[in-house]
Design goal:
The chain is of the alpha/beta class. Helices cover about 30% and strands about 20% of the residues. The protein has eleven helices and 14 strands. The strands form three sheets. Strands 3-4-5-6-9-10-11-12-13-14 form a ten-stranded mixed beta sheet, with helices on one face. Strands 1-2 form a two-stranded parallel ribbon. Strands 7-8 form a two-stranded antiparallel sheet.
């Protein structure tokens, strides 16, 4: 069978893999064996799966494949952050970031689309436009490639793309990541970030458990309309109502990401409005100073302004954490490495230089 007609097993949930093997006349337990080989042991050659019969291995090699990724480019930061650029089968590229945490732990920031349709003005990926969705194998393969550099403790779907704009493939990828015979990530170890697609947020909550993060970044519709065009479809009142309805386990909160941009959304008045806006929502706030990059006129506020904003939230009983920017000496912000390399290759317009 031609390579492009073979089934990529990394696109299949355990249930789907069981059905695929049943169609070949194989026992159900073989699906669990395959999940262990592919995800726990990182083996993608059927010939090496030695507890499968030779006949099954040969049949799988004829009818299926287990895709495997190697990054085309890796940038390493002094703080241990690694930025991967992956070249896809159709020539497109996506980014993934490995972020070191305390105690030798690591968080992986995963992409869900090539480009993005949300057009947020502070995000370089938004300038690329949406090219296409990633399939479950392409989402999962970012994790498979990263664990070759060491364990990944937590996953955040916060890379290129809007995860809820690719809901079906993202839900399937989560089911694969959660599979106990595979990576066995529990829902508490995976966070999905959205710009605020309200109907899809509610559907996500009905279909699968995952930590929810909302990219908020403004306290008025006027400012959020400018920063995040999605707000014109789902303004703050509608977004907050959806957050109050989102199903949460008793001990969990929705994370609200708030990128602080100097002179745009970083005033103490903004901080006080944020407290009122989140009233009645089980919330914690991540404060993220803007990661400056070529092509953007936005600037990060000074340390004193960030501290004052955080203190205003804390004094009013909010959980507010300042997130330090990682990988600032490399192209770690979303879309930077893709933009730099494809700009150099003439595939994208060269970004404006900061002044």
């Amino acid at each position: 069978m031609p390579q492009n007609q073979r089934v990529d097993l990394k696109n299949l949930t355990l249930e789907e893999l069981t059905g695929f093997l049943s169609g070949l006349g194989k026992e159900k337990f073989r699906a669990r064996q395959l999940m262990r080989w592919i995800y726990r042991r990182g083996v993608t050659s059927f010939a090496e799966m030695t507890d499968l019969s030779k006949a099954l291995r040969e049949e799988l090699a004829e009818r299926a494949t287990a895709s495997d990724w190697t990054p085309e480019r890796v940038e390493k930061s002094r703080d241990g952050t690694r930025k991967y650029l992956f070249r896809l089968a159709d020539g497109q590229t996506v980014e993934t970031v490995r972020i070191p945490m305390e105690g030798e732990r690591a968080t992986l920031c995963v992409s869900t689309q090539v480009g993005c349709a949300m057009a947020c003005t502070f995000c370089l990926t938004g300038t690329f436009g949406l090219v296409r969705n990633l399939d479950p194998a392409e989402i999962g393969n970012q994790v498979c490639a990263a664990v070759k550099d060491g364990p990944v403790n937590n996953i955040v779907l916060m890379g290129m793309g809007e995860p809820l704009h690719n809901l079906e493939n993202v839900v399937k990828a989560l089911e694969i990541l959660y599979c106990t015979e595979g990576f066995d990530y529990g829902p508490r170890r995976v966070t999905l970030s959205t710009s605020g697609l309200v109907p899809e947020m509610l559907e996500l909550g009905r279909r699968v458990r995952v930590n929810l993060a909302v990219s908020l970044n403004a306290t008025t519709d006027a400012v959020r309309d400018q920063l995040m065009p999605v707000n014109r479809r789902y303004p703050l009142r509608e977004l907050m109502n959806a957050c109050r309805k989102y199903p949460l386990p008793p001990s969990q909160r929705i994370t609200f990401e708030y990128i602080l941009i100097r002179g745009v959304n970083d005033s103490l008045e903004d901080a006080r409005r944020l407290v009122k806006l989140l009233h009645g929502v089980k919330a914690k706030v991540n404060l993220i100073p803007f990661n400056e990059h070529d092509g953007s006129a936005f600037r990060a506020p000074g340390a004193e302004a960030v501290e004052a904003f955080q203190r205003t939230l804390l004094d009013r009983g909010m959980v507010a954490i300042r997130r330090a920017s990682k990988g600032q000496d490399i192209s770690a912000a979303c879309g930077q490495l893709k933009g730099k390399l494809e700009g150099a290759q003439g595939l994208l317009p060269a970004p404006e230089q900061k002044t």
